[in-house]
Design goal:
With 166 residues, the protein is mostly helical. It has two domains: 97 residues; 67 residues. The protein contains four helices and no strands. Helix 1 runs antiparallel to helix 2, helix 2 runs antiparallel to helix 3 and helix 3 packs antiparallel against helix 4. It starts with 15 loop residues before the first helix and ends in an 8-residue tail after the last helix.
Length: 166
């Protein structure tokens, strides 16, 4: 800690600021660790629930392949979201700063997940597409996915990596 992290820890008047800043850093790290543990627990439950659902779907008669694929995609993408959030917490602890890119990736995965689920629901429903609630939702999701993709491309293109050549 200190000046290399981007902020001075010492107050010009006394060293109380240094002690308070270190205490706040410890509390902040503790909260991040608790969030990471909760994400790991959520990931274990999501994996377990997905496996149970897969076994249940495979044992049903008549076998519904579309339902199996839909549940696999849904659970798999939820696991990706949890893994990416866990990665974000780890990077936040290591870098001591909030990183934008993992949040954009989580939002992109969540948008694609919902779009796939709405599409699968439409496939099992009526064969004719109509501009009902699901059509509007798909349009909004497509716009969201395109916007997040553009944001990610712009982030990669214009984000300057610190001291890469030094």
């Amino acid at each position: 800690m200190g000046k290399q992290d981007g902020y001075p820890l010492r107050s010009p008047r006394n060293r109380t600021h240094d002690l308070a800043a270190k205490a706040i850093d410890q509390v902040e790290d503790g909260i991040y660790v608790i969030v990471a543990v909760l994400l790991v627990v959520a990931g274990v439950f999501a994996l377990w629930g997905g496996l149970i659902k897969l076994v249940s779907d495979m044992g049903q008669r008549p076998f519904d392949a579309l339902a199996v694929v839909t549940h696999l995609l849904d659970n798999g993408l939820i696991l990706f979201i949890i893994a990416e959030l866990l990665h974000t917490v780890r990077v936040t602890i290591q870098e001591r700063t909030l990183v934008v890119e993992p949040f954009l990736i989580v939002a992109l995965i969540a948008g694609v997940r919902r779009l796939l689920l709405v599409t699968a629901q439409l496939a099992t429903g009526s064969p004719v597409f109509s501009w009902g609630r699901q059509g509007i939702e798909m349009t909004v999701l497509l716009a969201l996915i395109l916007g997040i993709t553009v944001a990610l491309v712009l982030w990669h293109r214009f984000h300057i990596q610190p001291a890469a050549g030094k």
